[in-house]
Amino acid sequence: MRVLGVDPGLTRCGVGVVEGVAGRPLTMVGVGVVRTPSDAELGLRLVAIEQGIEAWLDEHRPEFVAVERVFSQHNVRTVMGTAQASAVAMLCAARRGIPVALHTPSEVKAAVTGSGRADKAQVGAMVTRLLRLDAPPKPADAADALALAICHIWRGPVTNRLQQAVAQNRLQQAVAQHAAGTLKTPQAQQAPKTPHASKGRTA
Questions:
Q1: Is 16 helix (H, G, I), strand (E, B) or coil?
Q2: What is residue 72's predicted lDDT score, i.e. its pLDDT?
Q3: Nearest 10 degrees: Cα torsion 92, 96, 101, 104
Q4: Which residues are part of the catalytic machinery?
């Protein structure tokens, strides 16, 4: 499984590609940051992020894209920029038919370090260890992108099985409801009885 992790941001959008399967050593394929100037027009910054992510998709051909789920923050301006960059990443993947998964920061931290409250230094240290790197990737956005990819590789199969189970359950319920409706259909299809005329025709 090859996963592109995206840590969304307008100024620095972390990207990292990890390959492997759960339970076996993982390999870093690439890591970096898509940058945009803070004084540029918003539309141009989003275009730059799109072009950067498209370049990574072209080069590494991931099977999945894992994006950090945007959560509420006190700084509304910051969270809006993060949400916009996140939407661009999801759009780029969806346009190519690549499945997208969203993981919250606490999910990623828990998957990589064992604690949903780990700080960025701990996440960077564990990413370095898990991918057998010489040093933690810089900046932290790049390390977070790799952590997202690792999280999806480890949690993806479980999540997919849960989603398949839910979908199967819904399908069974739909079939059962359809069968119940079919049993009632003959009655529903009976023509309504018309009352007999009680008055004769007068001359």
A1: strand
A2: 66
A3: -10
A4: 7, 68, 141
